[in-house]
Amino acid sequence: MRMVRQGRSWSGHERNCAFLNTADSTFANISAASGLDFPEDGRALAVVDWDQDGDLDLWFTNRTSPRLRLMVNRTYEPTGEDRDGFVALQLHGTTSNRDGIGARVDVQLNNPSKGPMTATLHAGDGFLSQSSKWLHFGLGREQTVESVAVHWPAGRMEVFDQVSRGGRYILLEGSGRATEWDKPRRSVNLPSSHLVPPPTTDAAHILLPARLPLPPLSYRQFGDTKLQEIDTDARPLLINLWASWCLPCIAELRSFVAHENKLRNTGLNILALSVDGLEEKHRSTPDNAWKLIGDIDFPFDSGLATTPLVNKVELIQEALFDRQPPLGVPISILLDDEGQLSAIYRGPIDLDVLIHDVTHMEATVRERRDMSVPFAGQWHSQPSGIIDFWLQRAAQSFENKYPQDSTWFVQRLVDVRTARLHLMRQGKADFALDLARDLEILAQLLILQDRSEEGIDRWRRALKLKGDDAEGHVRLGNLLMSQGRAHAAAEQYRNALQINPADIEAQRHLESVLKVKRQPVDQVP
């Protein structure tokens, strides 16, 4: 899954395979000769005489583009001498199920020595696919049909005659008659096409449908070792990561210089942060970046990116997207006047797109959702809870490298859900339980960072929301005991026993507290 999220192929670009059943019961690999060896990651295959010319065509679905492909069989010419070299049968059950699913059909030809041609009707005959319920038999040249025997799922065997080559017939269970399909053959115009894959690019413009709060980010000014926190200064800010060895980066910086007035008129400020010196494979230094900024007379703010800042930008993308390509420059993030993430730009920025995003900062939630998708459409239902989901993902992404920022995201999640709970009229009980779980997670994170008082406060809030939670009181009691607060812990164990008098763990811990009652203890808060 990690490889797929990094943009790699699910199956290593394995081409589709096609095998031909030969006369000696072996299979020949005809993948290339058949034209079916496409490089996309194939999934489902359905077989049907789509153009009704007497041979079978193929529908493919794929995990990668194109998601749907039709392959029209041109090996059979319906106007030639073999135009009637098939027979197609559709089963209608009466005693059996309506579609005759599970029936076995034997088609006896005029050459008894070869035995009958046999097919079974399945409901679903491949991975994620269902082929046509018409049973298709290829007859070749000069073969005629002597009889058709159907072994119905209900247990009866029935023989149908008067079936001729080149026809389509309905076989009704119990009738003994094959009725020719009376619908005229449809005319399907299926011109061949050649799919030209679009050129691959790492550039992307992602306007978020909802803005994501971000923890504090820091950088260094040129010639200064002191970290400085990024401030939006109550206006939109574009943070641009670039390098002096990156030609697209330099072109982008020059574009900012050339369109300074146009950009400033939108109220936008730009902070160009160089990554020079952060990686070994490029032998460039901050001095190279500083010289370039001076040479082009860059009019906006500039400085040096730090390793934590670059890591956090990468972790933010990991939280937002399933597809996680490696971080490269140039890359930019757009913050609103409150420091919330509004858009991400991978690769050089289209200035018209940037200006559009900045000038539409005040768009409503619905308008942003419409602008965030790459094509027009109509919402079946308005999505909800996306900020909650992103904050949870961000907390998970930051947990290992930056636990304090992980705690920051959980606190924002608690704030968002607390505010929403006060506005809710229905479903408050279930939502309160979700908020309580978030508070417990936040409490544990705070405790791990030696912020025990804050953690205990969040835990008490969670217990208040959950109500009768004996286990929660026991866990809080254990936490208080680890802090040496025996009286407060005893109170929590007694609360647990009031809820569940048979709670063995609460009884055991309370007994342990009482045994040490002679030792100095804290006062119950």
Question: Keywords, please?
Answer:
single chain; 525 residues; Immunoglobulin-like; Glutaredoxin; 4 domains; 15 helices; 33% helix
Question: Could you describe the 3D structure shown?
Answer:
The chain has helices spanning 2-5, 31-34, 247-258, 260-264, 286-295, 307-320, 351-359, 365-372, 386-398, 403-423, 428-448, 452-466, 470-482, 486-499, 504-515, and strands spanning 19-21, 27-29, 42-48, 57-62, 68-71, 86-92, 104-109, 117-120, 135-138, 145-151, 157-160, 168-172, 178-180, 204-212, 218-220, 227-229, 237-242, 269-274, 301-304, 331-335, 341-346. It is α+β, with helices and mostly antiparallel strands. The chain folds into four domains: 2-71, no CATH class; 86-180, Immunoglobulin-like; 204-372, Glutaredoxin (3-Layer(aba) Sandwich), CATH 3.40.30.10; 386-515, Serine Threonine Protein Phosphatase 5, Tetratricopeptide repeat (Alpha Horseshoe). The chain has a six-stranded mixed sheet. The protein has a four-stranded mixed sheet with strand order 9-6-12-13, with no helix packed on it. Helix 13 (470-482) runs antiparallel to helix 14. The radius of gyration is 35 Å and the shape is extended. It starts with a helix and ends in a 10-residue tail after the last helix. Residues 521-525 have low confidence and may be disordered.
Q: Quick recap of the structure?
A:
Mean pLDDT is 89; it is low at 521-525. With 525 residues, the protein is of the alpha+beta class. It has helices spanning 2-5, 31-34, 247-258, 260-264, 286-295, 307-320, 351-359, 365-372, 386-398, 403-423, 428-448, 452-466, 470-482, 486-499, 504-515, and strands at 19-21, 27-29, 42-48, 57-62, 68-71, 86-92, 104-109, 117-120, 135-138, 145-151, 157-160, 168-172, 178-180, 204-212, 218-220, 227-229, 237-242, 269-274, 301-304, 331-335, 341-346.
